[in-house]
Specification:
homodimer; about 230 residues; alpha+beta; seven-stranded mixed sheet; DNA-binding
DNA sequence: AAATATATTGTAAAAAGTACAATAATAGTT
DNA sequence: AACTATTATTGTACTTTTTACAATATATTT
């Protein structure tokens, strides 16, 4: 009972993107409203079957662009989910990616079969089709791990940000609280965010200094054997 | 120019396993000698196309068992590689796994189209077919990351081990050196390896105490919010 | 008994992490 | 102009962790 080679070439592969967005009100996830079967008229992760003649990474970017309008944003592969019956139309393996973006900069423009795209607070996610809730939980736990060891949190913030915004972002993602003084002491000691000399304006209180992420300084840290750990 | 649904169900999926084994002479990788096309008569990672009616995790275990004889060993998913032309027979996405085992306990029994299975020192890996060298490099870097934060190193050691063996294992995997006194102080402080009261015998020097990993104690550490970091 | 080989152990100094609250700077109000 | 409301900014003492470093112990072999 040997399989013929052709028996193996009968699977489909999809990509599912977990897009994390941040704004003052907290961390959010981007979902699309499905305008096509299966699971039409349900909110789901922006994901789709991919073509056999496009590289995996390119496919992930293309799927995201088509369904949400987002492009050129930070993406990283997570894991592949491959239970036999996870898709009603046949054997579909799905490769999950996570992406990070500052919500203000995210111009949503859903097309293809995505009727809508909207941000959902991380703790108000509805039941999702397929195994999307499982994928989402995995993505959340991975984001927590990775954001502590790589300078990817800056993808969630505007180019210029205050130390308070930076701290709020880390606190939202990690679901924890930091002491203001200790947080600043540590982050400034690491020396890969630099004071731009600019300040907030039009705020009804003492304006905060604006900082920016300095990738070169971070590289130097790494070259010197330092390991980031927030 | 819309794709028909059937156009998507034309991919194959494979699993490639990076099996790390440890013994006194250092860290090794398990390769098989391919007795089938493509790349017949070359050493490669133990991997194979998988059937569309078996779950992904089960497939990974089955592929490893068939090609090498190994079963019930520690496995964890890494990443999926999906360049268009990575496989000469068509579009094949491969999901990589890494596995850990103590070489002494590994009874190799290659079957199916694997003509041989053998351990290769981690720094003497030949050129491999497909993108297997790339997969291997990714696996090595992931092993280094994961072994520092999870108690998976014990999978590479016998049930009873000496502190020197434990240190050698970590040093081999992490390609670094630890101070003997500081290493012991730290590992004993963590308190999840316990002295069995037994000792080495038949060694031409002071015999070392034998320890074992204590999973319950480790669980307690975690529950108390401790984060392992070697 | 001596030689050989590896196992075992402690301490002081440096670095990093933690807990904690008063002062500063702006816009808006009186 | 003085005052209020609001958030930004900053330092120090204490605790914990990490680091650097070498002499003694216990088994086998000669």
């Amino acid at each position: 009972m040997k399989n013929a080679l052709s028996d193996y070439f009968k699977a489909a592969v999809s990509v599912d993107n977990v897009v994390f967005g941040f704004e003052k009100t907290g961390l959010k996830i981007l979902l699309i409203y499905r305008g096509a079967e299966p699971f039409r008229d349900q909110w789901a992760l922006p994901g789709d079957l991919i073509s056999v003649d496009i590289d995996l990474v390119s496919s992930a970017e293309k799927v995201l662009q088509k369904l949400t309008g987002l492009e050129k944003i930070y993406m990283e592969q997570l894991q592949t989910f491959g239970k036999v019956n996870r898709h009603p139309y046949g054997r579909v393996f799905t490769v999950s990616y996570f992406a990070l973006i500052k919500i203000e900069d995210a111009h949503l423009n859903p097309s293809s079969w995505a009727e809508e795209a909207a941000w959902f607070p991380i703790n108000e996610i509805p039941n999702l089709p397929f195994d999307h809730n499982e994928i989402l939980e995995f993505a959340k736990s991975q984001l927590k791990l990775r954001i502590r060891r790589q300078p990817i949190g800056f993808e969630l913030l505007p180019k210029l940000f205050t130390l308070t915004e930076l701290q709020n972002m880390y606190e939202s993602v990690l679901e924890t609280q930091f002491d203001v003084r200790n947080f600043r002491k540590k982050i400034l000691f690491l020396d890969f965010i630099t004071d731009t000399g600019k300040k907030e304006n039009c705020v009804a209180h003492r304006p905060a200094k604006l900082f920016k992420y300095n990738a070169k300084r971070y590289q130097k840290l790494i070259e010197n054997g330092y390991e980031l750990a927030l």
